[in-house]
Amino acid sequence: MSVAQVWRTEGALGAQFFFSLASSEGSTTEKFCSTLARELVQYMPELGPHIADAVKRNPAIIRSSFHDQIRTLVTAPLQHRQKRTILVIDAFDECKSGTQRRELLDSLAMAVRETRNLKIFITSRPDPVIESVLQPLSIKAQLKDRLHDVSHHDNIDDIASYVHQSLHDILPQDKRQQLVDKANGLFIWASTACRMLTSETSLSPPEDIYDRLISMDQPGAIDSVYNLVFERIDPEYYGVMCAMLALLLAAFEPLTIDDLDDLLKHSRVPGRAKALVQNLGSVLSVDRGTDQIQFRHPTLVEYLRRCTTAPVIAKHNKLYLNAVEAHGQAASWCLKRLKSPNGGLKFNICEIESSFFLNRQIPDLDARVTRLIPRRLRYASSHWLFHLAETDDKWRRALVRELEPITTYPYDLYWMEVLSLTGGVPRAILGLRSIVGRTGLEKPRSNLKEIRRFLMRFSVPIQESAPHIYISALPFAPKRSLVHIEA
């Protein structure tokens, strides 16, 4: 049982948030406060009325400063609870932005000072922001760096227990112990090695894999293990594997098996998602609940990102992921999703019966979004701009014709509907800002600028109510603007 489960059983767990490099939402603090508020209501129902009242008094709180969000949604409601409350924040280092990490720590420190019974448990790999912010604070209980520290015997003992149990029927005890020693306190090294040795799809016998692992020069060098994982792939399929991994790496949130297969088909890459996961089961997994493909560890993401630099000398077994190509393929796929007659953008996509209600006043809005806005359309609406920004001029020029319908009436307004209903307006404004200065988009640039101005000027009514795109924002748009003229 994990420590979070123990605290939950005791009634002390208030909320938990898991950062993840594999997800656009999980690698930023955008949804941090709203997630904590939702889980506080779930784990401590007595706080529900206080949080609901706070949101009612300040409906635009999510657009307020991070400090204000923490105060309104977390610390103020917790003033009504006398017992201990623990917040768990896992993989803090996987929040991409150093500025966001610092702001989050400052806000959490403020929350602890203002809330007597609040405790916060943070896990992270070594991070300079944590050390610089928390080290001088007297309110911290403990700040320890024990990652990969072989002087802590429980680290080694945990790895030994895992290896001996996982490989009990595969290797004799002396060889299992040699793997424990070779891991040198790095659990991800041990777990990846064990999955390689127990893989049912491997063409190499465990003895050969063991010999390669033991022969590695540097103990605990995870890159060496990843090199071995990919070297064992049939050279005939190496190019396809690289193309598939590049698409997974380029994705701004995890793709499902079906998503990746659809993207591969669109991009004319002759691969199958399920086969990829089966052959790379030691480093990839599929979430049984969501069917999403996951990287097993952030060190793999970092390793793959280093592989996006083209090697000086091409080698048949040297991993190279063409990120520019992958983003271009993903951008094309997203634009196709947006325009699709089946499951694409359309008027009143969530079948809202009345414009008198704000989005938050529609009781079943979340269910409608899930049912009526397909997952791929939600992905495309949120991320197409960023894929377009991350590819090159050649791809952007090739996609101008596909881009034109999305930036003109009526699809531009239909897209705004999805943004309104999914909370995607701020990200869209950021994406439009990142794309308008890119080369290769000279023709649609004026439309993109107009849409950005429209979203920024009317961001409040658009975020508050999807129907008010048409009945409030559009009538008050400048009459000479392209958005107003076209509509």
TrEMBL record:
Keywords: Repeat. Residues 4-125 form the Nephrocystin 3-like N-terminal domain. It holds the Pfam family NPHP3_N. It comes from the Eukaryota. This is Related to S. pombe trp-asp repeat containing protein. It comes from Serendipita indica (strain DSM 11827) (Root endophyte fungus).
